[in-house]
Design a protein that fits this description.
This protein is mostly helical. The chain is built from 17 helices and four strands. A hairpin with a 4-residue loop joins strand 1 and strand 2.
Length: about 375
């Protein structure tokens, strides 16, 4: 398989940005089976636990609905208001079950991917009007998966209901010979058992469908290698732009460095490859500070600026190399180089004060260029 073909395959897991963009567009995993199972099971449990209050309210409502109101014969225009009042009482009678079902409707979205509200999901999608996309949905892999899921739904619910009826045949036969109240009680018990068995079958189907929907959602969001590279480039910036930014930052740093060279007290050089400019203000600094440093072309530029501004240039190769390796721009020099730098500064101060007589000689320096324990 060629490299281009491999690059076109969606083999890479989706990035955090791709997942976040999909969620913002309303593309999140959803399981209809999980939502159905949650609402159905919650309704059955609510009916079982709240059957007493619901039955009492329903009985009162039925009495009110079936009791004739003589005043309606004289004022037939009040019939619509009376019907609305009956509907409202019926809604109040079953409101606990409705409230439980509404709350259960939020369980599936929370378990699958959280509650997301996106205006983009409401926008029309022209791709859905494409006939080829419609045929792909009808005869593609997802259609086969939905067919298998439908067959599994029929098998599970039918099997659970059949087993429940099979084990309750004696109870059902006995209902014909029981008093009315006992028959109603046993019949409601059987109905509750049948509903719980159906709810269990739906829960089992949801336990199969929810992981599949999550896996299928991630599969659709997989990326090709080219898409992954493009996203990384967009998020982190192209190497060319980043390189240009680094170059500009380096130029700005060098410009600030060259502007600080005229304020230095001395420039210690290699004499050709290294240059470190030092500044010391008694009473304001604890130790001499590096205001400029560089090698090769930068070192040459530092020497030129220092020479043009009459800054002392002292050749001390081991010290220059040690200062360049161990010091940082804008920071104080290492403690181990205090003595050598102090001798250099003392020599520079003597040069400034020299007018007549013998010219001061540069002191001999004994500097361990690499420091204790370091290797050249």
């Amino acid at each position: 398989m060629s490299e281009n073909e491999q690059a076109g395959e969606k083999t890479e897991l989706p990035t955090e940005k791709r997942l976040r963009d999909a969620q913002e567009q309303g593309n999140i995993p959803r399981s209809k089976e999980l939502a159905t199972a949650a609402v159905f099971t919650a309704a059955v449990v609510a009916l079982a636990t709240l059957s007493g209050p619901v039955a009492d309210n329903s009985r009162e409502w039925m009495k009110a609905a079936l009791s004739p109101d003589p005043s309606l014969l004289d004022t037939p225009q009040a019939l619509f208001g009376h019907a609305g009042w009956l509907i409202l009482r019926l809604m109040l009678a079953v409101s606990p079950v409705i409230a439980v079902c509404l709350l259960a409707g939020f369980i599936a979205p929370v378990l699958m991917g959280g509650l997301r509200f996106s205006n983009k999901a409401l926008m029309p999608d022209l791709k859905r009007m494409n006939p080829m996309s419609g045929l792909k949905r009808l005869y593609g892999g997802e259609a086969v998966a939905e067919l298998i899921k439908s067959m599994l739904r029929v098998a599970l619910i039918g099997g659970a209901a059949g087993l429940c009826i099979w084990h309750s045949m004696d109870i059902l036969r006995g209902l014909l010979h029981q008093p009315l109240e006992r028959a109603v009680s046993n019949g409601l018990g059987f109905t509750l058992k049948l509903l719980l068995a159906t709810g269990g079958a739906l829960a089992l189907l949801a336990a199969i469908d929810a992981p599949y929907q999550k896996w299928n959602w991630l599969r659709k969001l997989k990326m090709t290698r080219e898409e992954l590279k493009r996203e990384m480039k967009e998020s982190e910036g192209s190497p060319e732009v980043k390189g240009r930014i680094r170059q500009m930052q380096m130029q700005m740093s060098q410009r600030r460095m060259m502007e600080a060279v005229p304020t230095a007290d001395v420039v210690v050089v290699n004499p050709t490859h290294y240059a470190v400019a030092l500044k010391y203000e008694s009473g304001r600094m604890n130790a001499p500070t590096v205001v400029a440093r560089g090698v090769d072309e930068v070192a040459l530029r530092i020497r030129q600026v220092a020479d043009g501004n009459k800054v002392a240039i002292v050749s001390a190769p081991p010290l220059a190399r040690a200062l360049y390796r161990e010091s940082q721009l804008g920071k104080e020099i290492p403690v181990r180089l205090y003595s050598a730098v102090a001798q250099i500064l003392s020599y520079v101060y003597q040069l400034r004060q020299w007018r007549t007589g013998p010219m001061p000689q540069q002191p001999p320096l004994e500097v361990d260029e690499f420091g204790p324990g370091a290797k050249p």
